[in-house]
Specification:
about 900 residues, alpha+beta, Rossmann fold, Topoisomerase I, domain 2, Topoisomerase I, domain 3, 22 helices
Amino acid sequence: MNVVVVESPAKAKTINKYLGSDYKVLASYGHVRDLPSKDGSVKPDEDFAMSWDMDAKSAKRVNEIADALKGASRLILATDPDREGEAISWHVLEILKRKKVLKDATVQRVVFNAITKSAVLEAMANPRDIDMELVDAYLARRALDYLVGFTLSPVLWRKLPGSRSAGRVQSVSLRLIVDREMEIEAFKTQEYWSIDADVTAGSDPFLARLVKHEGKRLTKFDLGNETSALAAKAAVEAATFKVTAVEKKPGRRSPPPPFTTSTLQQEAARKLGFSAQRTMQAAQKLYEGVDIGGETVGLITYMRTDGVQSAPEALDEARHVIGALYGKDYVPEAPRRYTTKAKNAQEAHEAIRPTSLERNPGKLRLDPDLGRLYELIWKRMIASQMESARIERTTVDLDSADGQTGLRATGQVVLFPGYLAVYEEGRDDEADEDGGRLPIIKEGADARVLQARADQHFTEPPPRYSEASLVKKMEELGIGRPSTYASILTVLRDRAYVRMEKNRFIPEDKGRLVTAFLEQFFRRYVDYGFTAALEERLDLVSAGELDWKALLRDFWQDFHAAVGEIGELRMTQVLEALNEALGPHIFPAKPDGSDPRLCPTCGTGRLSLKTGKFGAFIGCSNYPECRHTRPLAANDDDANGETTGDRELGVDPATGHTIWLKAGRFGPYVEETDEKPKRASLPKDWPAASIDLDKALRLLRLPREVGVHPDEGGVILAGIGRYGPYVQHNGTYANLAGTEEVFDIGLNRAVAVLAEKRAGGGRGGRGRTEAAALKELGEHPVTGKPVRVLSGRYGPYIKHESTNANVPKGADPAALTMEEAVALLAAREDKGGGGKKKPARKAAAAKKAPDPGTAKVVKAKSPAAKKKAAAKKPAAKKAAAG
């Protein structure tokens, strides 16, 4: 008997079919042990000895492997073909050695780049030993990440309460995002104008741009105002032109290489809107295999790679498929061979490609994410082996009779599409630098301006990073490695150091604070060059050219000393440094030139950064006499850009009470002045700057009555509580999609939402399950999100994000098309039935609707607890306003 160990049960099942009954394939379910999440798991004083821990589930799986080895003649470690896969095999082997279960069994390591029968059988025929150089590289990275995280993070917790963590690569990636935001904030726009003209030269009209004015070549900012622009426009309209030059330059565009991990993440972000994590999850499933005709087949090669080369048989197959689908003109004379520029490229793996290009994506029925990603990978591989595109770039110069004014038109013609017939690489900047197609224009022809336009422009700051552009930048700088990008970006979001808006990273104030702290006191360790150099040294370890413990000793000596120095700093010193570093952000200049740090409440105190139990905030120097506070950023500015602690919104016409917008320790809130002021916290999707009297009154009057339940009686209420917007009826709370729905939801929709919540059942109606799916229509053509036909309590309906639309009576839900569904959803949204989906969170049931912004749901007490509470009644605790 031969025992084979792989990572996942899906791989185990497939590979067992390939190998037959003489093999038993078991899954380790990833790493079987790791460093415990506590101080002391890596011991620098003991030459970086590492203590490994194994949880109960991993112990059970290793025991299953150990039991299977009884009487086995061979142990085959067949984990993934990269550094992590090598480490998993090493861990499994080390544990089995300690258990003394190997005895006379032969231990072999095999790797395969694709889960196909031929690849697996070839790997089995060519075993090797565990590559200890890769294991050493893994140990070095794991120790470094642990030492940085468990040494820096406690410093952050002490000096910056509310901060979550720091990391060797995570913090440098965060700095990239923060630095870009600072560039944007510091950017000063500059006005400039351009003059375009519709021209004909005995031909169809074409577009030309003014490039010469008053005998001089124009630069970008020469026309800096409307007056000069209009003068130039008038000169164009008054001149007579002749075509002085028509220059045609033939060119070629070569296809990009097949995907690496990094380029796949970038293209999937640009073209599919996938996050790096979503891309890797889909790629993992394609690699491990999907069911095709009753057989599990791996559809792509291994997806963690820096390599761009492909196996000879893959190149031959690509040329055959291209010839069959597009013709021999699209097949180059010789296969295209690519080489990577990356150092130590993921242990020289192949590029990501289909295991068989004969599996055309149009003929496969895959889950939406898998299908779209597979099509992208298939097209990229096919395109990489196709002929170059042949294009002709044309430049047409037109000059006035007096030579004082000149126009230029540019365009291109695709003479032969080549690989462009299949695939064109996406770009972050979609501007067409080559212009459009030009008509046939003859040199020497007279030209006439049909119409001229003067267009105003302003320079724009560099764009915020998208996932694609951030991954590209990290790769350019040598920060991290492609296999880690997805997890790094996920951690930044999970730690609330950044948020995503329109698929772009925006640093939160917490992220800015952490970055400022690290730049002030640990600058070397968030330096791009230092981080890249450390990555190169780690690559030397994996290449066997550097001892991993020597690397750790060099790093730890300086790092440990730096941490010790910071520990001796007083809190006032830290705050002074951060006040200075973050000054332009937290105290932006006022339009009237007044002091931005002057306290708006007392008028004499100075505002500065302070820290408390819940993190950093801005407070007045006259505390406790003046209790003015606000959040770290001046994000509750008024219309004039002035930062105010409190803002009067107006008077409630029903009560005559004044309504205020205030900034509290826990965020902005609205308050109605009265003997017992009523308060309501602002929903997260309502910026403080957008709050007016109407919005404030709507919040303060929650919860609102939706109506009486038609079947069960009793009033249905809608409100905003601790867990977000909700509807409530007889103790059942159901989450709503967004804040606006609280004010707009009607009785029928409220009844349906409550019915869904109760149908999800169990535990008093708290759980929630999805309604039964009748049909998966695919992805919405605009949003790319799934559209499904579901079975509801009141009949079939269409669901897309937070919008539900009823299937028309008499219509067959199974025959519904995407086009019909989109029309029905649009009609429903026009009636106010849609909203922005928020992550659903479990709302605890309460006996009455909670007071908005301050409500706290408490669990029912046991009889014993009630007696204890009666015996000892603590003083009531005031709810924090903001």
